[in-house]
Amino acid sequence: MSTIQTQAVPQYLVGPQAASTALKASATLWFAVAVAGQLLFAWYVAALYGGAVVRGDPARWNSVAPHAHVPGDTAGNAAFGLHMLLAVIITVGGALQLIPQVRRRAPRFHRWNGRIYVLLAAVASVTGLYMVWARGTVGDLSQHIGVSANGVLILLCGAMAVHHARARDVARHRRWALRLFLVVSGVWFFRVGLMFWIFVNQGPAGFDPRAFTGPFLTFLSFAQFLLPLAVLQLYLRARDGGGAAARIAMAAGLTMLTAAMGLGIFAASAIMWLPRL
Ligand code: HEM
User: 275 CA distance to ligand 1 centroid (A)?
Assistant: First the structure.
């Protein structure tokens, strides 16, 4: 394996050290762009949904999410309100949790923020599942199954991350914590992916925007968590056992995905988030 990799990328072109540095840089760039996009999303959620509560106008929730505020449905409205509050807290908390400097300099904060993150992500997932199956939401059954699988994976990855942290198995804990971060970000990937798709196609393609159904949305409901998890798996393989060629290929692939994600964030901000504030 390493012979093939050495032949593909000669040592005098890219040494193992340079390949590792490139891979690390591509991961750092991905994380920085993702965090910037997620903070923008958290700001939008806080301003739109929190702002409506502060102004005493919860019906404004329905300007985006059609089933958000239903007069008389106290339990459902509370679930939605809690879901929004948690969306803001976990988006900010998740970013803080993965910043290496914070982890190194404030290990106590990392432990507490981690516990709170896992707990709140689980509650966000359960309120989401409640809204999908008991209250009703946009989309068809295939999308409901996709986002529900995402919700169940949040519970599973959270449990695994905590389990390995308690067992002091740092390597496994990190892997599961990264998976948890990606599945918690699943609904964000959905929005960014959808806006990227609409942007490159110059309009809706592969789905009916009024019914909010169609093959592309079914695909995206599963891809929102399966694709990031698959890319993470490839990244970990390249980082932990790959040769120079594998690391360079991964760094190039990740950089391209970061560019696509950046475009999606730009489109989501311009089309969805900023105009609604
Ligand atoms: C844990 C991370 C999650 C975050 C940060 C999050 C965030 C949000 C936000 C911001 C909205 C409001 C819509 C908008 O303005 O874009 C929303 C709505 C909603 N979310 Fe989540 N969500 C998460 C997980 C889930 C999960 C796992 C499910 C399902 C199992 C789910 C189901 C829903 C439903 C049903 C709505 C209402 C949509 C409607 O009826 O219009 N969420 N979520």
Answer: 19
Distance between CA 213 and CA 141 in Å, rounded?
Answer: 10
Ligand 1 contacts (CB < 6 A) are: 45, 64-68, 83, 87, 91, 121, 124-125, 128-129, 131-132, 137-138, 147-148, 150-151, 154, 184, 187
Q: What is the mean pLDDT of residues 102-127?
A: 96
pLDDT at 190 (0 to 100): 98
Spatial CB neighbours of 12, under 8 Å, sequence gap ≥ 6: none
- % of the chain at pLDDT higher than 70: 95
Domain ranges of the chain: 7-276
CA distance 227 to 18: 27
223 phi, psi to nearest 5 deg: -65, -25
Contacts of 113 (CB under 8 A, 6+ apart): 93, 96, 97
Please give the distance, rounded to the nearest whole angstrom, from the Cα atom of residue 156 to the centre of ligand 1: 18
Q: Summarize pLDDT for 221-267 with one digit per residue, the tens.
A: 999 999 999 999 999 999 999 999 999 999 999 999 999 999 999 99
Residue bearing the CA closest to ligand 1, atom 39: 65
CB 182 within 8 A of CB 232: yes
